[in-house]
Design a protein that fits this description.
Length: 137
C-alpha cells in the first residue's frame, strides 16, 4: 500500500513538472517540488565555510527568498552533504550535533532567521580548528 502511494506521489510530481515545464529534468523536478538544487546546497555550504558570517547570512537569505526555500529542506540536504565530506571526525560530530539542535528548534516553531544564524555559526566556528589542523599537519 505504501509502495503504491509512493508511485502515485511520483506520478503526481511528474505530471506537475510536465505541466509547468516543457521538459522533465532533475532540476525542473526540484524546482517544481520546492526542494533545493544540489548546486544551491553546495553554494550554501561553500558560503558558510569560506565567507564571513554576515556575507554568508545575506547570500543564503537572498537564495532562500529567490527560490522560496525552507530552512528545514536546506538543513536536510546540508546534513547529507556533511556525511560525504571528509571533515575531521571531531568537527563532523560538532556540526551534526548543531544541525540536529537547529532542526529540533525549527520543529518547535523557532524563528527561521535565528536558526539560519545558528546554522551559519555552526560552520563558522569550525573554521579555526580546521585551519589549526591543516597548519599542524
Amino acid at each position: 500500500s505504501s509502495g503504491i502511494n509512493a508511485e502515485y506521489g511520483a506520478l503526481n510530481i511528474m505530471q506537475s513538472t510536465s505541466m509547468a515545464f516543457n521538459k522533465i529534468t532533475e532540476e525542473n523536478v526540484y524546482i517544481c517540488t520546492g526542494h533545493p538544487l544540489k548546486g544551491d546546497i553546495k553554494s550554501i555550504l561553500q558560503w558558510m565555510l569560506q565567507e564571513e558570517f554576515t556575507a554568508a547570512y545575506h547570500k543564503i537569505h537572498h537564495l532562500k527568498q529567490l527560490k522560496g526555500l525552507a530552512l528545514q529542506d536546506i538543513i536536510t540536504e546540508i546534513h547529507l552533504l556533511v556525511h560525504r565530506i571528509e571533515f575531521p571526525n571531531k568537527i563532523k560530530i560538532q556540526i551534526l550535533e548543531k544541525l540536529s539542535e537547529i532542526e529540533l528548534r525549527l520543529s518547535t516553531g523557532s524563528s527561521e532567521k535565528f536558526q539560519m544564524s545558528a546554522m551559519i555559526a555552526a560552520f563558522n566556528i569550525t573554521k579555526d580548528p580546521m585551519i589549526e589542523m591543516a597548519v599542524s599537519a
